[in-house]
Design brief:
Beta-carbonic Anhydrase, Chain A; two-stranded antiparallel sheet; 9 helices; globular
Length: 235
């Protein structure tokens, strides 16, 4: 029997997620919906396809979103992004450009090394339960300095100075996983593994994200952006 419905009424999971969204929305000023002309995706798969299509336009240099002033006034009324992107803080990685999306379409969480900390997970929970994003993508990129620094730290058996060890320690598990495969290009392999590793965290961390991924409300995926070509490889 469907656990979402029973004679037209919400099941336990539906009530839980509805109450969760409401409880999260209240302290943040209520659930805010964007005033946008874009039609919301019908499913997580459609949201992912929208990202893929946008990247294809970016690579071909035929963007749809060139005038960001068109909906500036309506965006002030709220937001309703269709996807969340966990991206590196690298200045060359700009998700709205890479996926050819307008302001308000993407909820972006950025940190050097595109890994998920407790704060990042909380941000995704807000994006999914309150704002209604349907897809979460962890986006790595070529020539990532944070990944390279982690590889160097492991090989040299030495931590970098300052607060940089917090980045290295967060990325280290993915680099170890990549090392076990003995790849020809460790940087590329570790970059892909780090994206996949953190996409798995986004899918399996409970209770909010794991429940929404399990029910099919949200889908978490990984990708790697090639800075030289502009292409995103969806993993």
């Amino acid at each position: 029997m469907c656990d979402q419905c029973d004679s037209g009424t919400l099941g336990r999971r539906g009530l839980l997620m509805g109450g969760l969204a409401l409880s999260l929305a209240v302290p943040f000023g209520g659930r805010a919906f964007a005033q946008t002309t874009a039609t919301p995706p019908a499913s997580p798969d459609e949201a992912i396809q929208r990202l893929m299509d946008g990247n294809a336009r970016y690579v071909a240099n035929t963007p749809n979103n060139a005038d960001h002033s068109v909906t500036r006034n309506t965006r002030a009324a709220g937001q309703s992004p269709f996807a969340a992107i966990v991206a590196c803080a690298d200045s060359r990685v700009v998700p709205e450009l890479i996926f050819d999306q307008a302001p308000g379409d993407l909820f972006v969480v950025r940190v050097a090394g595109n890994f998920l900390s407790e704060d990042g997970i909380a941000s995704l929970e807000f994006a999914a339960a309150v704002l209604g994003v349907q897809a979460v993508m962890v986006l790595g990129h070529t020539s990532c300095g944070a990944i390279r620094a982690t590889i160097d730290s492991i090989r040299d058996n030495e931590l970098p100075p300052g607060h940089l060890p917090s980045l290295v320690n967060a990325i280290r598990p993915a680099v170890y996983n990549a090392m076990q495969q003995n790849p020809e290009d460790l940087l590329a392999a570790a970059t892909a593994e780090n994206a996949v590793y953190n996409a798995r965290i986004a899918a399996e961390t409970g209770p909010i994200l794991s429940d929404m991924n399990e029910s099919g409300t949200v889908k978490s995926i990984a990708g790697v952006y090639d800075i030289a070509t502009g292409k995103v490889a969806f993993l």
